[in-house]
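pipeline stage [seq->struct] | target=Sugar ABC transporter substrate-binding protein | organism=Deinococcus cellulosilyticus | residues=308
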Amino acid sequence: MKKSLAFVALTFAFASLAHAQTPRFVMVTHGQASDPFWSVVKRGADQAAKDLKVKVEYRAPETFDMVKMGQLIDAAVASKPDGIIVSIPDADALGNSIEKAVKAGIPVVSINSGADVYQKLGVLVHVGQEEYLAGKKAGERMKSMGVKNGVCINHEAGNGGLEQRCKGFQDGLGSKVSILNVKTDFTEARNAISNYLQRNKNVDGMLALGPVGAEPMLQAVEQGKLRNQLKLGTFDLSPTVLGALDKNQMDFAIDQQQYLQGYLPVVTLSLFKKYGTLVANDTLLTGPGFVTPKNAKQVMDLSKKGIR
């Protein structure tokens, strides 16, 4: 009986030790897991955690709130994880919190936004796309379609990455681009876009910076029966965006493969934790790529699986 109890105790001890040694990473982003874009990021992180047998905790403020996000990063640092994954939409607001993690000896990988600042903050690797370059490619594409008067629809005013997209869009288009800031509420955004189009009849191209702006844009254009007058594009994918592309209700979407933005940083931190290895190129580009009416169906199949 005593041997049996000893065996059980020993087994429990080994199990507890194994659990205690499981690497734990905290992912803090500016996007809620319920958002169609960020849900795919989280799915990528969750799959990587499963594949690599590590633990990943996803945290985000309820709205685009840099104060709250900074607090979440600080809390993550205080919990002493094996690594932190973070988006950097506003380096001025989040820089101190990220630097605290680095000074505490916690390896940090950035994703999505922050390609222009991550090195200054001591971040090991950035996983994402170069936002300015992606915006410029969108501008060049619209210019080739004959667009002369473009509008950039920004659903997160103050997000540095989105502002870079608009700047790139303007430079690629080769003419001044107006910025239309909208709320994340669908109805408010749709009404704002409708009102803008009614006041500005010369607009012939609109670029949304994500599905949160693209989906109300599509409805505003449909209600105003303006599709034939406008070239439409967006950053990032959602089922609604892909459906619009398939029906030729939109001209293109820029895909940054956000599943990889969830998966790859977990791989990077896991290998760094286990072996101390890092990729030679400290920027892992996941985009930009273009989805158009011609290839939308193929991407839709992957979207249904939660990968695109």
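stage status: PASS
auto-comment: The first strand starts at residue 24 and ends at 28. The chain has eleven helices and twelve strands.
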